[in-house]
Specification:
Pfam families: HAMP, His_kinase
Strand order of the largest sheet: 4-3-9-8-5
Structural class: alpha+beta
Number of strands: 24
Distance between the termini: 80 Å
Protein name: HAMP domain-containing protein
Number of helices: 17
Shape: rod-shaped
Helix content: 40-55%
Oligomer: single chain
Radius of gyration: 61 Å
Subcellular location: Cell membrane
Strand content: 15-25%
Membrane topology: Multi-pass membrane protein
Organism: Paenibacillus pseudetheri
Length: 618
């Protein structure tokens, strides 16, 4: 990561420093509230949070993509630069390969000429001179080295000064030891050729020891390298296996330190560069300037071509690229602002509409309507909110109607609990019993009446057990038997466990009264009255059965309508519709009364209750 960071420009590093700031902003927006003046807290609204988050996210993505793209392009440019430099090095190597072949041709030409004219020194000198003049652009001298280290030279100075020189001894010895190959010397300072490299080959077949030598014109080679350096904006040089410079680097004033034809880059010496097996190196000068180094061994010479690039071409290309990326980041900034504003506005409009609607509802305006015509989650939420308000209004209205109806029904029950007609008829029955001398029945009537009166004056909304209702019905039938001088036989058929089932007060008496007045013609005939209580599934059914006249089918559906008849109102009886409505109001529409009747045979009036109401309801 540190190495990658070094290759980023100053502007890019500054952009990268903004990334932690974006992260801190997002974290702050999600987890904290801003303090307002004094002790008040001012929360950041959701659209504003969303604006900053989207802005930070989009801008961060653009910066990240830009940086990745920049790094990718930088890598591609660097790869292309290395590839291009390798192509240049290959061309230079080909140049030296051609030169080596030329020098070899010169050596072979001299060898053939000397062998053909071994006894004619003047001809040999002439041919050496002609060969030198023909190749003077590439060589400094062409000559023969004798065993006494004197020479026959082709250049003008060596044609005059042919005395033995000690500098020729290593060349002659090397040729003598390697008679089958051409020996290439290290660069050295020659008396007549200057800074040069000598290619020497032993002259086999001569009558006396002799070697053919060609001094290379390193200045010409160096000028060729300088032309490439200038054209391609790179530094090229030839170095030997020992790290000495043959040609190149002379005009360089940059990162390379040249002393005595050796060089080093920063803390890395030429020997260390040659010892490494890598062909590409990234180094730094003593001033910390990064440079790229490529090396390539020549094919024919025991030399290495070194290319050092201070990345000037790369920097120039990246400088042009940075301008483009700065424009891209500026466009990304504007795009981030636009996208963030658009998304925040897209969320803010319906959100504020819902917020306004909720404030009005909070103030009690349940009929408020603010339409949000959108086919998305906000539209669904608005429509669901409207439906919820409508349901709440309907529930409130229903609850008001329910309470009003329940009050009316309970008032009707209270009014009917002490029925003047019932008291009048009961007292008349007592008078008749006394007149007929049936004194023993008086106590029965009085006790039953007292029980009914005590039972009737209690709270009508209070629930009682089925046992209490059965006792009240028994007292009521006892009085009616004496009043009508009939035997309305009460039969109780109660399933085990239901004797304490909770029911409404005054539930059974109106049903039994209905059987006597309608089924048995108001006492005109007599018959049994059976009360059943049993479970069926999750329902408890309490039914009153008589074997009287029955109810016509066309009248059954009108009996349970919540409009009492004039007769019932005058007599202040509790109608079947009252019981039916009380059960439905308390337990639900699926419960209430059901009437099953076969005229002249049987009538069943069933009261349906949920079985779950038995638990702790009484």
């Amino acid at each position: 990561m540190r190495e990658a960071y070094k290759f980023l420009s100053f502007k890019q590093r500054e952009w990268l420093k903004l990334a932690p700031l974006f992260i801190v902003i997002c974290y702050y927006l999600f987890n904290t509230d801003l303090k307002g003046r004094g002790s008040m807290r001012r929360r950041i609204s959701l659209p504003l949070k969303l604006f900053f988050i989207v802005f930070a996210f989009v801008l961060s993505c653009i910066i990240l993509i830009s940086q990745l793209s920049y790094r990718y392009v930088q890598k591609e440019i660097r790869t292309s630069d290395i590839y291009y430099t390798n192509q240049i090095l290959d061309k230079v190597d080909q140049y030296f390969t051609v030169n080596f072949s030329s020098f070899q041709t010169i050596l072979f030409s001299v060898e053939s000429s000397v062998k053909a004219n071994i006894d004619n020194t003047d001809v040999i000198k002439k041919q050496l001179r002609e060969l030198y003049e023909l190749n003077s652009n590439y060589v400094s001298n062409i000559y023969l080295i004798k065993s006494d280290l004197s020479i026959l030279g082709g250049s003008t100075p060596t044609r005059i000064f042919d005395e033995p020189l000690a500098e020729r001894e290593p060349l002659f010895d090397a040729a003598d030891k390697n008679r089958r190959i051409t020996f290439v010397s290290d660069p050295y300072k020659s008396k007549y050729s200057g800074w040069t490299v000598t290619m020497v080959r032993y002259l086999n077949g001569a009558p006396f020891p002799m070697a053919i030598a060609v001094d290379l014109d390193l200045n010409a080679i160096e000028e060729t390298l300088f032309k490439i350096n200038k054209k391609e904006q790179m530094d090229l040089a030839l170095i030997t296996a020992s790290g000495k410079i043959i040609a190149g680097f002379s005009e360089n004033k940059g990162p390379i330190n040249i002393q005595d034809h050796t060089f080093s880059i920063g803390e890395t010496s030429a020997e260390q560069i040659l010892d490494t097996t890598e062909t590409s190196l990234q180094l730094h000068t003593k001033d910390g300037i990064p440079v790229s180094l490529l090396k390539k061994p020549t094919e024919k010479f025991n030399w290495t071509i070194i290319s050092i690039n201070d990345e000037s071409r790369l920097k120039a290309a990246l400088s042009r690229l940075e301008t483009y990326y700065i424009g891209l980041l500026a466009a990304g900034l504007l795009l981030s602002l636009f996208i963030s504003f658009f998304i925040a506005k897209y969320i803010r409009t319906p959100l504020y509409a819902l917020k306004t609607k909720m404030k009005r509802v909070e103030q009690g305006l349940l009929t408020t309507t603010i339409s949000i015509n959108r086919n998305d989650e906000f539209g669904d939420l608005s429509r669901a909110f409207d439906r919820m308000l409508q349901q709440i209004v309907e529930l409130i209205r229903g609850a008001e109607l329910h309470n009003e109806l329940e009050r009316k029904l309970e008032i009707q029950v209270l009014q009917s609990q002490i029925n003047p007609h019932f008291l009048y008829n009961t007292l008349g029955s007592i008078s008749n019993v006394i007149r007929l001398g049936q004194i023993e029945k008086v106590d029965v009537v009085i006790e039953s009446l007292i029980s009914i009166l005590e039972y009737g004056i209690a709270d009508a909304s209070e629930k009682v057990s089925l046992r209490q209702e059965l006792q009240n019905v028994s007292d009521y039938i006892a009085i009616q038997n004496i009043r009508y001088n009939r035997n309305f036989h009460l039969i109780k058929n109660i399933e085990a466990g239901l004797i304490d089932f909770p029911v409404f007060r005054m539930l059974l008496q109106p049903l039994v009264e209905n059987s006597i007045f309608h089924g048995y013609n108001g006492g005109g005939i007599e018959g049994p009255i059976t009360i059943h209580a049993y479970r069926e599934g999750g329902i408890v059914i309490i039914e009153v059965v008589d074997l009287g006249e029955g109810i016509p089918t066309d009248k059954i559906k009108h009996i349970l309508i919540s409009e009492p008849s004039d007769v019932e109102v005058k007599r202040k009886r509790i109608g079947l519709n009252n019981i039916h409505d009380r059960i439905r109001l308390h337990y639900g529409e699926q419960f209430g009364l059901q009437i099953l009747s076969i005229p002249k045979e049987i009538t069943r009036v069933q009261a349906l209750f949920p079985a779950g109401s038995f638990k702790g309801d009484a």
